[in-house]
Amino acid sequence: MRPLPSLLAFVSVLLLSACATPDSRIASNRAAFEKLPGEIQQKIRAGQVDVGFTREMVLFSLGEPDRKFIRKTEAGDTEVWGYRDSTPRFSIGLGIGGGGRHTAVGGGLEMSAGGIDPAERIRIEFRGAVVSLVDILKR
Predict the structure, then answer these.
(1) Burial of 57 (0-12, 13-18, 19+ CB in 10 A)
(2) At what angle do helices 38-45 and 55-62 cross, to 10 degrees?
(3) Can you list the residues of the chain whose pLDDT is less than 70?
(4) What is the C-alpha to C-alpha distance for residues 34 and 98, in angstroms, rounded to an integer?
């Protein structure tokens, strides 16, 4: 198998998986989305989440979480969903080296679907069946 076509196929799959949008998630379950009130539909299309949203509404808006936690407190247990920034990142490198009578030039292109970002961009907390808290990272 040739390396370049394999690399291009891999990069295409990576980009497509990173490009899931509220519209694509709505399209996969339009009947359930159409039953929601107009104000909620607007927020979902904008990729927003609000207190009172159900799990289904959050999934429409943001997709599957990157991480799930259970928070235990005196008031009881809550489920917490964490979302990281997953926008593709690109970098280009160029290197020049020499030794003796030889000089070499090399280059490279790297693409990452998000990389490791220790800070979550959004954290959603559920109490019972609905969102009780939304933390949004201020940048």
Answers:
(1) buried
(2) 40
(3) 1-19, 86-100, 105-119
(4) 64
Predicted confidence at residue 32, as pLDDT, reads 95
Helices (H), 1-139: 3-18, 22-28, 30-34, 38-45, 55-62
pLDDT digits (tens, 9 = 90+) for 45-64: 999 999 999 999 999 999 99
Rounded Cα gap, residues 139 and 137, in angstroms: 6
- What six digits make up the tokens of 126? 């559920």
Cα separation, 37 vs 42, whole angstroms: 9
The pair of three-digit structure tokens given for residue 121, joined into one six-digit string: 């961009």
